[in-house]
């Protein structure tokens, strides 16, 4: 029969108490009887039994406590496989079983943590390798891109140099052709018949057109290469406007189209490159003349303040005092699907091979770049069949 911890403690104490009573009775008996020897032996025997029982109780407590202490020391030192001996059925047995369960749980957790640590180390190693491979690949790609960029810059420089040289080589004989055809048309070298006059007029116009194309290509090449520089000085815009209107008259002389100009009084001078502002006006007027078959073209120049009704729709104006140049026409207008490409290079509103209007698609692209170089803004309003209006806003000074 199994005896619990309480019984192991209570029974010995009951025996010790009974022995104490017997010893006391024996001592009393020694005082009243003559059997002293038997009484002393009995007392000594009772004391020995009591001491043995006390030692038994002490071991009953001390042995399992020492085992528990040893177990905690082992587990604390890292020996997670240590277990206390099983077999006890008392309260200390329950403690030992709980200790073993705890040690098993710790060992299991430790194995899981160790496996997780190994997985993390493997993952970190893979990430490090991947990072090194990625850095190496990025460095290689960066080097390739840098080399490609340098090659592209060199090719662009060579292209710009070639275009500049070819433009010069083409313009020199072309100017001679234009000049000699004009001399012959004026009759300086002698009279010419009507057929000759028609042919020379065609030669002169074609030469002027080709010269304009070469100028556009050269300007665009300079803009792309970043070698386009402005020579700014105070500019009288009214004077420039008169010159621009005179330049566009030949484009509409055979059409029922009138060219009008209106310049506000007390217009301030603008600090700008005069030749390039003239080029902007001529490009806009020429573009209007190209797409207008009848009606009118108007160049209007007025003062501008932030309270003016005409403002860029998607840009913030960084100045408070400016001059607004407006070129409006009654031409074919700009279709909705072509509005986003108006200022793009090499783009035409009518890009088909059978288009009725010529050009390289560089005029408005160059115009926008020239306006931006002056710190200004350019935008337009248009509706198909109702003409177009282009706005150029320039600051009065170049601050």
Rg, alpha carbons = 54 Å
Shape: rod-shaped
Briefly note the CATH topology name of the largest domain.
Heat Shock Protein 90
What's the CATH first level of the largest domain?
Alpha Beta
Fourth-tier CATH superfamily name of the largest domain:
Histidine kinase-like ATPase, C-terminal domain
Helix-strand pattern: HHHHEHEEHEEHEE
Query: Based on helices, strands and strand pairing, what is the structural class?
Result: alpha+beta
For the report, how would you describe the main beta sheet?
5 strands, mixed
- Major β-sheet strand ordering: 2-4-5-7-6
**Low-confidence region ranges:** 1-6, 351-355
Span between N and C termini? 109 Å
Q: Could you tell me the number of beta strands?
A: 7
Mean pLDDT: 80
Helix/strand layout:
Blueprint: H1 5-32, H2 36-76, H3 91-185, H4 194-225, E1 233-235, H5 237-252, E2 257-263, E3 270-272, H6 274-290, E4 295-304, E5 322-329, H7 363-373, E6 377-382, E7 388-395
Parallel strand pairs: 2-4
Antiparallel strand pairs: 1-3, 4-5, 5-7, 6-7
Helix pairs in contact: 1-2, 2-3, 3-4, 4-7, 5-6, 6-7
């Amino acid at each position: 029969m199994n005896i619990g911890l309480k019984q192991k403690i209570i029974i010995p104490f009951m025996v010790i108490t009974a022995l104490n009573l017997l010893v006391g009775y024996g001592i009393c008996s020694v005082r009243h009887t003559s059997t002293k020897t038997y009484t002393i032996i009995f007392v000594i025997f009772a004391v020995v039994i009591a001491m043995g029982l006390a030692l038994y109780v002490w071991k009953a407590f001390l042995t399992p406590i020492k085992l528990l202490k040893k177990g905690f020391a082992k587990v604390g030192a890292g020996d997670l496989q240590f277990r206390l001996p099983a077999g006890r059925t008392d309260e200390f047995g329950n403690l030992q079983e709980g200790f073993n369960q705890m040690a098993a749980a710790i060992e299991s957790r430790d194995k899981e943590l160790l496996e997780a640590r190994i997985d993390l180390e493997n993952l970190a190693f893979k990430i490090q390798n991947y990072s090194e491979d990625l850095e190496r690949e990025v460095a290689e790609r960066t080097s390739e891109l840098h080399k490609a960029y340098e090659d592209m810059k060199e090719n662009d420089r060579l292209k710009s140099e070639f275009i500049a040289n070819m433009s010069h080589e083409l313009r020199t004989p072309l100017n001679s052709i234009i000049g000699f055809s004009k001399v012959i048309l004026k009759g300086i070298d002698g009279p010419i018949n009507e057929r000759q006059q028609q042919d020379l007029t065609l030669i002169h116009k074609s030469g002027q057109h080709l010269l304009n194309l070469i100028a556009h290509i050269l300007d665009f090449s300079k803009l792309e290469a970043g070698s386009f520089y402005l020579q700014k000085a105070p500019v009288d815009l009214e004077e420039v406007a008169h010159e621009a209107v005179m330049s566009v008259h030949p484009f509409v002389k055979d059409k029922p189209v009138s060219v009008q100009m209106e310049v506000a009084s007390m217009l301030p001078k603008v600090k700008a490159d005069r030749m390039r502002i003239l080029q902007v006006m001529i490009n806009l007027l020429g573009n209007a003349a190209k797409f207008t078959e009848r009606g009118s073209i108007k160049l209007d120049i007025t003062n501008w303040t932030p309270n003016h009704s005409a403002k860029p729709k998607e840009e913030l104006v960084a100045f408070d005092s400016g001059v607004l140049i407006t070129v409006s026409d009654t031409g074919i207008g700009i279709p909705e699907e072509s509005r986003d490409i108006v200022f793009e290079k090499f783009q035409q509103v009518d890009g088909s091979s059978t288009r009725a209007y010529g050009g390289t698609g560089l005029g408005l692209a160059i115009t926008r770049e020239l306006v931006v170089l002056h710190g200004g803004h350019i935008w337009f309003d248009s509706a198909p069949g109702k003409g177009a209006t282009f706005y150029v806003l320039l600051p009065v000074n170049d601050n």
